[in-house]
């Protein structure tokens, strides 16, 4: 089983829609969780960290469920500029390295 | 956020040549940098962890004699792909670690990547 798994998509949604992505991780020693955004042929950029209590940043809401070992990202009121690949990223306790999922592609259409 | 640069942004070379990629932290010092490789439609795969002043730590399956890493200063790490072959063609991305403070987790900032094509 892969350490971080995501549905590759693509998720095709109209502008203004709400869309949610899930990600599961296999290593229970994972301690830090992030969502990164990667545009085509570009480097990943940190979108937000994911905290146990859940956190919100504008139109983006991240949730963590440690018992079930999954992380979610909710995007409200989708914009065309949200079209990108969203990477679920996990860091294991005691390690400085990050493990990336393959990403979920989002396409927002007019 | 912190800024990380990479040079070159793209390179095309003949099979058998060596290619050096530079990764610089522009406005901060980074004792730890990471090198990743990403093939089309695949996830970023960590190749090695580069520590300033010491040998790099390579991930399983990554040949240290083929991918030479040097982290000679707190702002520069280099990756040299020696005797490159077409299967080495990929998107190489570095990142620099900024330690967390006040209980916050570490953050990695990524360079813009180097697209290597080996003919």
Largest sheet of chain B: 7 strands, mixed
Question: What is the chains' assembly state?
Answer: heterodimer
What portion of residues of chain B belong to β-strands? over 45%
Q: Please give the alpha-carbon distance between the first and last residues of chain A.
A: 37 Å
Roughly how many Å is the radius of gyration of chain B? 14 Å
Number of strands of chain A: 11
| Outline of chain B | globular
Q: Got a strand count of chain B?
A: 11
Runs of chain B with pLDDT <50, length 5+?
none
Largest sheet of chain A: 6 strands, mixed
> Counting H and I runs of at least 4 residues, what is the number of helices of chain B?
0
**What percentage of residues of chain B falls in helices of 4 or more residues?**
under 10%
Strand % of chain A is: over 45%
Helix content of chain A: under 10%
> What is the average of the pLDDT values of chain B?
91
Largest interface: A-B, 20 and 23 residues
* H-E order of chain A: EEEEEEEEEEE
Q: Roughly how many Å apart are the termini of chain B?
A: 36 Å
**What is the radius of gyration of chain A?**
13 Å
List low-confidence stretches of chain A: none
Structural class based on helices, strands and sheet pairing of chain A? mainly beta
Task: Using brief descriptors, characterize the structure shown.
heterodimer; A: 110 residues; mainly beta; six-stranded mixed beta sheet; five-stranded antiparallel beta sheet; 0% helix; globular; B: 119 residues; seven-stranded mixed beta sheet; four-stranded antiparallel beta sheet
How would you summarize this macromolecular structure in one to three sentences?
With 110 residues, chain A is mainly β. Chain A is built from no helices and 11 strands.
Structure description:
With 110 residues, chain A is mainly β. Chain A is 0% helix and 57% strand. Chain A has strands at 4-6, 11-14, 19-25, 30-38, 44-50, 55-57, 60-65, 70-75, 84-92, 98-100, 104-109. In chain A, a hairpin with a 5-residue loop joins strand 9 and strand 10 (98-100). Chain A is globular. Helix content of chain B is 0%, strand content 52%. The chains are: A mainly beta (110), B mainly beta (119). Chain A binds chain B through residues 4, 31-32, 41-46, 49, 87, 91, 96-103, and chain B through 1, 32, 34, 41-46, 49, 91, 93, 97, 105-113, 115.
């Amino acid at each position: 089983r892969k350490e971080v798994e995501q549905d590759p998509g693509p998720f095709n949604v109209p502008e203004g829609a709400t869309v949610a992505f899930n990600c599961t991780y296999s290593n229970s020693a994972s301690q830090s969780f992030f969502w990164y955004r990667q545009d085509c042929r570009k480097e990943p950029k940190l979108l937000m960290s994911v905290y146990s209590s859940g956190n919100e940043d504008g139109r983006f809401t991240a949730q963590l469920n440690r018992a079930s070992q999954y992380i979610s990202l909710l995007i409200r009121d989708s914009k065309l500029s949200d079209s990108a690949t969203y990477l679920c990223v996990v860091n294991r306790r005691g390690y400085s390295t990050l493990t990336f999922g393959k990403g979920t592609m989002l396409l927002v259409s007019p | 956020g912190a800024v990380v640069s990479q040079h070159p942004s793209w390179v095309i070379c003949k099979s058998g040549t060596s290619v050096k990629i530079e990764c610089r932290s522009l406005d901060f010092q980074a004792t730890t940098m990471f090198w990743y490789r990403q093939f089309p439609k695949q996830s970023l795969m960590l190749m090695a962890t580069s520590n300033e002043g010491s040998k790099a730590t390579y991930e399983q399956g990554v040949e240290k004699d083929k991918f030479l890493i040097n982290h000679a200063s707190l702002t520069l790490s280099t990756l040299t792909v020696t005797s490159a072959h077409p299967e080495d063609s990929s998107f190489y991305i570095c990142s620099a670690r900024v330690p967390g403070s006040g209980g916050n987790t570490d953050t990695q900032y990524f360079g813009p990547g180097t697209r290597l094509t080996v003919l």
